[in-house]
Amino acid sequence: MSELTDLTLAEARDGLKARTFTSSELTEAHIAAIEAARALNAYVLETPEKAREMAKASDAKLQKGEGGPLEGIPLGVKDLFCTEGVRTTACSRILDDFKPTYESTVTAQLWRDGAVMLGKLNNDEFAMGSSNETSAFGPVANPWLAGNTDKARAKAALSDLASAGTAGVLVPGGSSGGSSAAVAARLCLGATGTDTGGSIRQPAAFTGTVGIKPTYGRCSRWGIVAFASSLDQAGPFARTVKDTAILLRSMAGHDPKDSTSVNIPVPDYEAAVGRSVKGLKIGVPKEYRVEGMPAEIEKLWHQGAEWLRAAGAEIVEISLPHTKYALPAYYIVAPAEASSNLARYDGVRYGARVPGKDIVSMYENTRAEGFGSEVKRRVMIGTYVLSAGYYDAYYVRAQKVRTLIKRDFDTVFASGVDAVLTPTTPSAAFAIGSKGSADPVEMYLNDIFTVTVNMAGLPGISVPAGLSSENLPLGLQLIGRPFDEETLFALGAVVESSAGALPRPEKWW
Amino acid sequence: MAVDEATVRRVARLARIAVGDNEVPHLAGELNSILAFVEELSELDVTDVEPLTSVTPIRLPMRDDKVTAGGDPEKVLSNAPAREGDFYVVPKVVE
Lengths: 509, 95
What we know:
The structure holds two protein chains of two kinds. By secondary structure, chain A is α/β, with parallel strands linked by helices. Chain A has helices at residues 9-17, 23-35, 48-63, 105-112, 151-157, 177-184, 201-207, 241-251, 269-272, 295-310, 326-341, 359-370, 373-386, 391-414, 440-444, 451-456, 485-499, and strands at residues 43-46, 74-78, 116-121, 190-195, 210-213, 233-238, 281-285, 314-318, 419-423, 460-467, 473-480. An eleven-stranded mixed β-sheet of chain A has the order 1-3-2-4-6-5-10-11-9-7-8, sandwiched between helices. The longest helix of chain A is centred in the C-terminal third of the chain and has 24 residues, at 391-414. Chain B has helices at residues 5-14, 24-38, 73-77, and strands at 83-84, 87-88. In chain B, 32% of the residues lie in helices and 4% in strands. In chain B, strands 1-2 form a two-stranded antiparallel sheet. In chain B, strand 1 and strand 2 (87-88) form a beta hairpin. At the A-B interface, helix 11, helix 12, helix 13, helix 14 and helix 15 of A face helix 1 and helix 2 of B.
């Protein structure tokens, strides 16, 4: 039954409706695939019994010709989403075996629409990272290997993932690395992710999957473990543009429990897939031609513009002059918000507690042992930039720069540009352990093309567009006007069909 | 604005993270590397620029000042590392 895991979400949905197979069969196929892929470390918690129950309930509905838009579709959930009664850790030791007594709004809507939960997916601790290497559960292996990698050697190296990079095992990107790896390895039909600086789009690019970060306010943040509240947004991963459109429709929508969630109707995103892009004006920002960008990334970017032109879009060069300031401003704003959000982990109400001689040393010991080094670094940077005497010089200045970044996009969109085309990442996936150990900034540079989008609150999609010289997937990013995800789905579908079918990562694990 | 070891200790204290003596020099180096990276922002003139407070032009909604949830101490306390009855237990705070 393994071929059931090869279906796209749309094909599976149609097959279930036509009763070609049952949700129970589809779910069993995925459970078996997950069990056979444990070495990748994509799932941090498998919930097969829950999945079987949900699938059975879906089959009962499908049999009667009933059911929601995702009825019987097995999905994976990033461990940043609170799931009622199911351990949620944000891949941090500090949450220990926290079992939420409530369900995040986004996942509640997926279950409302009939989806089946396979388990919780690995991510960087509190979503802080670009490679999934900061997770308390350890790194995730990217199902893709470079063309010249010895597969047997890579497989043997999976027994010690932290040093598997020496055998050519690659990161799946981050922070939603479990989500991207699971979708690419056929361990679910789609997955949820969150994106604060690129955490959906960068891993999507590294694994040849599609990922969209919707406009800030499109999906409710209620019940998602907070990292940087003014930047965080949930979004889907899947293997096709259409599949992400189907998922986003269920995930999006107004929620009174999140005051920043926006009360505007959710369109039928799937209907935008295949819509003509004729006459659309696509901006290509000259500031994204960064120094040291590999020639193959530049080439792919040109190719993407040519594909859109061939489909009838008009390509114009644009300027986003404050682009280079986005990443430095992000590394003030995001840690500042994180230091505030993560103040709640005090060892009193939930999670781990490490005793101390008094209550303050109990807090300090709990946080010292519970947080990993990247999280501590960011909490401390955030505390520093918010502290007396530095607040104006760092935090207020960064928020002003953010205004300038947003203004760049406002100006471009006001001039008639419908969407912006850029590469998603400055490189293909890199080996586990190869980046950021000496200087944390080296890892931060991964998000150079994605972070502006969060700073301005815009929607952005990453679509696989080709392969690198080492046969690794590369993605192109499309950035849209606020709440115009439909145009991104239409343009993304053009990139997807023009690129043609990419090879799939063959099972070596 | 280089961060020295005293500043690392002060920030760690503010952030309520215990830091061992052996970690301080390393942390100072990392924090300085991040601060050097964000230093680029100081070259921009932001005199007449308002700080961004919201990316969406939507006004925050108001709601009635009413209790809409609660009354379930079991749910609230179910994840407590230490509890007694309907209370969290912490080290003695008041002598």
